[in-house]
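Hi everyone, sorry if this is the wrong subforum. Our group has a chain we'd like a structural model of before ordering constructs, and none of us has done structure prediction before. Sequence below.
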Amino acid sequence: MEENHANGGSLNDYKFLCFNGKFKYLWVDLNRYTNHTRGWWNEKLQYLNIDSIYPGHKGHIALPENIDEMIRIAETLASDFPFVRVDLYNVDGKIYFGELTFYPQSGYIPFKPDSFDFELGAEFSLPENTEQ
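Answer:
Right subforum, don't worry. Here is the predicted structure as tokens:
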């Protein structure tokens, strides 16, 4: 995915949704300040046809060559949490950390299709309490 930061545009924002330390979904925000769209992928890096608060990106989106390294970093950062969104940037092949988000949009992101909301919810599980 070509970054357009050199000409004053916005960076692509890679947001890894991780459940119990494992990457399950990725969304990428594109053109945040002009024509904001969002692309979605599953854990197999298959593109998903999802609309949310921003329309799904139409057209081809190539993920960075080092996407596997980005996933490894996201899973490392997510390892201690039942759910966290790990935000990363990729500038000329160099990976930068953005933030950890525990409640994206306070849990109120609408999805089309609506069934995707249930797919996300099915991934969430709290670890069992081993203390008695």
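For your construct planning: The first strand starts at residue 13 and ends at 19. The chain has two helices and six strands.
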